[in-house]
# Entry
Amino acid sequence: MTDAPSSTESTDRTVTLPIAVVSLLAVVLSAIPLLLLDPQADDGFAVFAAVAGVPMLASAVVILIVSRTVGSSRRFSPRALWWVLVVMPLGILACSVPTILGNAEYFEAETAGGFIGTLALMLGIIVFAMALGGLVWFFGLFPLDMVVRLVERRVRGERISAGMFVVPLVFLALGAVIVIGGLSLDGLAPGRIAGGQILGALLGIPGTYDVAWPAGLWIVRILVAALLLALVVPAILRRARTRGRAPSGETAPQD
# Structure
């Protein structure tokens, strides 16, 4: 009678512990730039990395942990999520308080209303970044985890076809295109016009966009070409094999 509860508690700990570690580590990593670096340097990059970049990555890692737990049919208690949903954002927000107070003029927090408004803005950025962690997981950690699992199965001696690596690699390439493309181009117009600007940049057509990172744009072009080849070449090969086969009802002519 006591084996089942103890097994359940052990399973909960194996899930809760890594989520807690990731959440607390995110708070520590955010505290370093918030408390030690100049928040005004590089247009506030340190603050942005602390309140947006770190929670976004931490959220993606937690989603990966939860997905692997659910995928392995292990019991998962939603109570474990309070570490990432409550402890992490409030911990990062608490670390930002000394930074805001020490640079009240920069953050426009010289009054009580301004201070509360800045805190609310910080919290909003943290929550939004955590939501974007789902995209980081989907285009980054999820396909990378698929590749790792396929390699593990290959090492164990299982037969793994090369085609099984195509889907996760395509997702990784798409994620890289989105990130590197965003860093490579600047001055894009809002709305649908941006699509034409991006296409023009990929084709090298001059336009109203600005190339902030020429090398990154070439990386995007190579990745897009590789994606197109990965989608088109297999289809062409399948069609060629189909045409090369003789219809089943036909027989070779006899003398």
Notes: The chain has two domains: 1-134, 161-244. The mean pLDDT is 85.
